[in-house]
Amino acid sequence: MVVFALLIINKAGGLVYNRTFAPGLQKLDSNDYLILAGTFHGIHAISRTISPAPRAPHPPGTRPPPTTGIETMDAGRFRLTCFQTPTGVKFLLFTSPEQPNAEAIIRRCYEMYGEMVMKNPFYSLEMPVRVEKFDRVLGGYLVRPG
């Protein structure tokens, strides 16, 4: 598994968690990560609004399916996968382009976040994530050998 980094962006576009996992990557300073999170949040919001409407009409009395915005972005040396939770929190996973099952990996990260961060009585919503158990378990999952 080659996972480069994970970023978590709150529903307002603020960076609440970032961690790199692959050694030897070019380091970004904290300001660059904040700019990246805010920029992606804005582009994601715009892409949701310009997304084409579904062709089939939805049944009366029901909501139309939500538009998703950017889900993946491929570059020459990395792939960015975005998962937006029902509450608007975005998980951004940077992997190698060849990495299979990035969607399953990012959903597992979300499950860990729910179990270890959201259920932590000392965590305040929308604030930076500083939960040692989350760091430890996430690192063990994303830095597996092989």
Automatic annotation (TrEMBL):
It is found in: Endoplasmic reticulum; Golgi apparatus, cis-Golgi network; Golgi apparatus. The keyword ATP-binding does not apply. One of its GO terms (biological process) is endoplasmic reticulum to Golgi vesicle-mediated transport. Its main location: endoplasmic reticulum. One of its GO terms (cellular component) is endoplasmic reticulum. It holds the Pfam family Sybindin. Keywords: Endoplasmic reticulum, ER-Golgi transport, Golgi apparatus, Transport. CDD domains: TRAPPC4_synbindin. Part of the multisubunit transport protein particle (TRAPP) complex. Belongs to the TRAPP small subunits family. TRAPPC4 subfamily. This is Trafficking protein particle complex subunit.
